[in-house]
Design brief:
Distance between the termini of chain A: 58 Å
Strand content of chain B: 25-35%
Radius of gyration of chain A: 22 Å
Order of helices and strands of chain B: EEEHEEHEEHHEHEHEEEHH
Shape of chain A: globular
Radius of gyration of chain B: 18 Å
Oligomer: heterodimer
Helix content of chain B: 25-40%
Strand order of the largest sheet of chain B: 6-9-10-3-11-12
Number of strands of chain B: 12
Number of helices of chain B: 8
Largest interface: A-B, 23 and 31 residues
Helix content of chain A: 25-40%
Structural class of chain A: alpha/beta
Structural class of chain B: alpha/beta
Largest sheet of chain A: 11 strands, mixed
Number of strands of chain A: 19
Distance between the termini of chain B: 15 Å
């Protein structure tokens, strides 16, 4: 049998019992109660400790919901969410299976081709099942062999629970406990899947790990959970890309990401978030309420977050670092763009516990249309953190006169030897800059995109090459038509 | 055929008329200088020619290379071969000089149906022009004009002109803020580009620049009108007598 035939066979198999049927059979009724939690754990055939943990999380969340303790401090506005109307552990609404690209909205295809995504990936993104499953399977398997050689574990969270329960038990909730916040509690109770990475002592992960395909292939995973552990001296770079199909109703996406870096380990986590932002009038779009936190547990460890946030109707997200080990380093590089009626309240927390810990925050907010963009960041230097240092740079760029930029920095210093620097700026995109570039022959639209890319340069250069290119294109597309 | 033909040009800013009937013809290969006191409309004229949007054209026509310039967007005028060396060059943070200039050159080449240049072909070209203006290689990768001194910014304008090879270069007070050595370097760069096809419109407040870039014609702009035209000797006369003596002269001087 030729390779092609083998793959075709595999495709059919996956299609037959892996994808469509599974979704229909596994769909649970709407609403959330202990029965649903038990059903999720049972469907996933999870060990007892997982069910216990989910139930504890659920009970905590239920008490919070009863107390109406949903966080309200963020600078975003949205109608109350009816949590009992949401279907957990399945697609909230099974959309009709598209048979070919011809059935996909041409506007979406246009966007994909502008992004430079090859045709088979376009199908994947649009949720055309056959090729999507085909591709992600083949990609996953080639990865696995190479990674196994290096001793790196990279698998779905479900697989990790089955095959590496001791690691999951040890680290799950150790950085983001289920009591952390309302959405983290909800996620802990109902999360359906996600990624698990373990890089053993002294291993430099031989390739960049990416979840781009898997998340898209699923399309339905609104509550995923990622856990990455880098053991002593290990290094791993992890990329996460998000796109979502266009839907009229708002959808809740509440993910949790936990990172743990032991002595001398480095974790680099990059995100290009392009969930559906809603239409031009602000209808639809994803509520992206995400808890991401890393713990620099060991000495000389380093965790670096880089995010490019262009999607979602509402973003509520603060990738943070707990700098526990002496000499550990935390970094946060962010570009957040809000256009039309998008709202973003995003930033970071840097908690300095260990001696000589250092953190860097570079945040670039771009507001266009009626977009509202808030930077919210906390730098906390505790008593024991002798010689801690922080540098924060926080710039906002406004396009047009109906958008807003807001900055809320919180600084708490309990050790007198700490050194803090904070720089902030807000500017409007300059007609003078645009005219200067135009006078050299460059079209107005390209001028704007050039100025914005220049503005974001300090963040883009932290991204892996292909991601940086994609991020630049994304920004241009997201801003299309916002500059007259 | 003339390269630039300005007929009875009137232009306003925020409802205030600045240019009150400009007539000027520039033929290929000619260097014209516009001199005038502060507020006479020199920079407005340069801005109108480069199609800056903040000016409202109330009357008149401008033909550039046989086409209606006033119908063109700024980037179209640039692609047609009109270059403005800015009085106050703008900073573009995060974008390197080399990347910016290659993008500009390729936009113009594309407009003209020529093949675009890749970085390997472009860099030697840019380096050569930078040597001409005595600019260090470090400016290749520095963000456009960011942290440049006044003189470096002006030299960078001339580097851009040398790379883009326009048909008409409008120099808007390129001499302001330059010391004598930098002035000579800039003038040398401009002179090296003089040819029988390329024309220059040198806008300046002082005669000093014209010692180094010797114009074919000098026009005196006062209160939105060209009040006097002549040869290079007119510049010297102005230097001696000041602008006030021209204001008594009848308007409407044409070359």
């Amino acid at each position: 049998m030729s390779t092609v035939e083998q793959l075709q066979d595999l495709t059919k198999q996956e299609y037959k019992w892996g994808f469509v049927t599974a979704v229909e059979e596994d769909r649970l009724p709407a609403g959330l109660n202990e029965e649903i939690i038990r059903a999720i754990a049972q469907k996933k055939d999870e060990p007892e400790f997982m069910l216990e943990w989910r139930l504890k999380a659920y009970r905590y969340w239920a008490s919070q919901e009863k107390a109406q303790a949903e966080p309200k401090w963020a600078n975003v506005k949205f109608p109350p969410i009816d949590y009992q109307a949401i279907t957990y552990y399945s697609a909230p609404k099974q959309k009709t299976e598209l048979k070919s690209l011809d059935e996909v909205d041409p506007e979406i295809l246009e966007t994909y081709s502008k992004l430079g995504i090859p045709l088979h990936e376009q199908k994947l993104l649009a949720g055309v099942a056959v090729d999507a499953v085909f591709d992600s399977v083949s990609v996953a398997t080639t990865f696995k062999a190479k990674l196994a050689e290096a001793g790196v574990i990279f698998c779905s969270f479900s697989e990790a629970v089955k095959n590496h329960p001791e690691l999951v038990k040890k680290y799950l909730g150790s950085v983001v406990p289920y009591t952390d916040n309302f959405y983290a509690a909800l996620n802990s109770a109902v999360f359906s899947d996600g990624s698990f990475v373990y890089v053993p002592k002294g291993v430099r992960c031989p390739m960049e790990l990416s979840t781009y395909f898997r998340i898209n292939a699923q399309n339905t995973g609104q509550f995923e959970r990622t856990l990455i552990v880098a053991d002593e001296g290990a290094y791993v770079s992890y990329l996460e890309g998000c796109t979502a199909p266009v839907r009229d109703e708002n959808q809740l996406h509440a993910a949790v990401v936990e990172l743990i870096a032991h002595d001398n380990a480095t974790i680099k986590y990059s995100t290009v978030q392009n969930w559906y932002p809603g239409d031009k009038e602000g209808k639809g779009g994803i509520y992206n309420f995400v808890t991401k936190r890393g713990k620099c547990l060991g000495k000389n460890s380093k965790i670096s977050w880089t995010q490019v946030e262009t999607g979602s109707a509402i973003t509520w997200k603060y990738p943070s670092c707990i700098l526990q080990g002496d000499n550990s380093v935390g970094e946060f590089y962010s570009v957040a763009l809000t256009n039309n009626y998008q709202q973003a309240d995003t930033g970071t927390k840097m908690i300095h516990l260990g001696k000589n810990t250092r953190s860097t925050i570079v945040s670039k907010g771009i507001s266009a249309g009626h977009g509202q963009n808030t930077y919210r960041g906390m730098v906390k230097i505790l008593k024991g953190a002798h010689g801690a240092r922080n540098y924060t740079q926080c710039d906002s760029l406004l396009i047009g006169d109906k958008c807003g930029a807001h900055t809320f920095p919180y600084i708490e210093v309990k050790n007198a030897s700490a050194r803090m620097e904070h720089e902030a700026s807000t500017s409007k995109i300059g007609e003078d800059q645009i005219f200067y570039l135009q006078q050299r022959g460059i079209s107005r639209e390209e001028c704007v995109s050039m100025i914005i890319n220049g503005f974001c340069k300090a963040v883009f250069r932290e991204l892996p090459m292909e991601f940086a290119v994609e991020a630049q294109k994304l920004l241009s597309i997201s801003l299309e038509g916002s500059v007259g | 055929m003339s390269l630039l033909d300005i007929k009875n040009l009137h232009a306003s800013v925020n409802g205030v008329e600045i240019l009150k009937g400009i007539n000027l013809t520039i033929n290929p290969g000619e260097v014209h200088s516009i001199m005038g006191p502060n507020g006479s409309g020199k920079s407005t004229l340069a801005g109108v020619l480069a199609r800056r949007e903040s000016y409202e054209i109330t009357q008149g026509q401008v033909t550039f290379n046989g086409k209606d310039l006033l119908e063109m967007k700024p980037e179209e005028a640039a692609c047609e071969g009109l270059f403005l060396a800015f009085q106050y060059p703008v900073e573009i943070p995060g974008i390197s000089n080399a990347y910016f200039l290659r993008t500009a050159l390729n936009a113009i080449r594309k407009y003209r149906g020529e093949e675009e240049l890749d970085a390997m072909d472009f860099l030697p070209l840019l380096r050569e022009k930078m040597r001409l203006l005595e600019m260090d290689d470090k400016f290749l990768n520095r963000p456009v004009n960011e942290g440049f001194s006044g003189g470096e910014k002006k030299r960078n304008e001339i580097v851009q002109m040398a790379v883009l090879e326009p048909m008409l270069a409008v120099l808007d007070e390129t001499d302001s803020g330059l010391d004598i050595d930098a002035l000579k370097v800039v003038a040398n760069g401009v002179n090296s580009m003089r040819s029988t096809e390329r024309s220059f419109l040198v806008v300046t407040h002082y005669q000093r620049l014209l010692n180094y870039i010797v114009p074919d014609y000098v026009h005196v702009l006062v209160n939105g009108r060209i009040v006097k035209s002549g040869g290079p000797e007119l510049a010297l006369e102005l230097e001696e007598k000041g602008y006030s003596w021209t204001e008594a002269e009848p308007a409407g001087a044409r070359r």
